[in-house]
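[agent] plan:
  1. take the single chain provided in the ticket
  2. run structure prediction with default settings
  3. attach structure tokens to the ticket
  4. add a short note for the reviewer (M.T.)
[agent] executing step 1
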Amino acid sequence: MTAEGYNFGMAVTTGERRIVSVLVADLANSTGIAEQLGAERAKFLFDEVTRLMSDQIERFGGTVAQLTGDGLLALFGAPVAHEDDSERAVRAGVAIQRALADYAREVEAAYGVSLTARVGVNTGPVVVSDEDQDGDLRYNALGDAVNVAARLQTVAGEGGVAVGPTTARQVETCFDLEPLGELELKGKAAPVTTFRVTGVREEEPADPTLPLVGRDFELTVLERAMDGLVDGRGVIVSVIGEPGIGKSRLAAEVRSRYRDRVRFIEGRAVSYAQSFPYWPIRDLLREWLGVGAATPEARVRLELKAQLTEVFREETDEAYPFFANLVGLTLEPDAAERLREINREAVQRRTFELFFEFVCRLGQRQPLCLILEDLHWADESTLELIEELLGVTEESAVALFLLYRTEREHGSWRLGERARARYPHRYREIELRPLPADASRTVA
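[agent] step 2 finished; step 3 output follows
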């Protein structure tokens, strides 16, 4: 469907002005597909396509505002706003293309039909109102940001995701972007600087090459903890503070100073994956394996089997399904059957036991520091696993660095409370405060 196919002009009597990221996704050559398959089959196919698209929108916390038959319009930032709505929208666009590519292979094999989509993402002010459509609450958005997103979709290319200038500035550290130049978009008086997403970047650690300013006391506490770790004493460290106050920077400094004596593995929770069990553990295991988000699943599977063999030896076959599940791999039939034979509570219990043993054995080989960042966004399963893991510091040379915000309503706060109560001789807590004026001037 062309941009003109979206109903952007609906009358809005009341509405709220919001800054949102607008995503427009559209199936390419839908008219030709309908002619080839016939109206009835085409409708069922388009319904499945929009369902796949909607699943990815909801996965990243967006709201489907409008369905168009062969595409959709979604909002990130309304009705619920997040601090990373632009990133969520672009990740949803990339995920839509991946999900559709998998489905397209099945459709092409069955009907000889090629399915591709185009996605545009633009960030800016809109007027949003809610309305009830056929029993479903939909959100109607009006404004230039919506129109530009629709135009961007038309230049994204089949299988592509195009973003506008504001979105690009906000996500340039998360994605590889290819400039498309200044494009004349219909309805726009001035050209719009446009970019195409060409890849997802791996998370970049905080830069330890810049001097650490105003954190001498905190660094001394951590150095004593790490010196004890090198001597074989496990430790639990909570580093807490407001957003952007330097938790990651402090951890990066320790990692830089002790990298020759301690093995560091890092996992990070992210705001858009709170509904996915064990996301930070998945991230940590992928760093252990030396693979990224874009690494083919076949390679991840082989690396996992090979490296688990080094840790578990003859117990590898038993451990593999549980770790493959943590990493997010599609299980082979025999591995999946083994997990189906036991109930959910038993799967969780055995997962915790094997992960505890895994960390314990790594720490027996070499002092080990696990850095778990942004735990205020961690899912409940992850928090429960980490709580069970606290005791590993009694049995092996393992340091657990738990980084989270100071909001007590988050489940992560419970971790520090439990660690303090159960392992007071292992526990250290660092609450980062704003830098004094002279240190702030030095940083500037």
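[agent] step 4 note for reviewer: Residues 7-13 have pLDDT under 50 and may be disordered.
[agent] ticket updated
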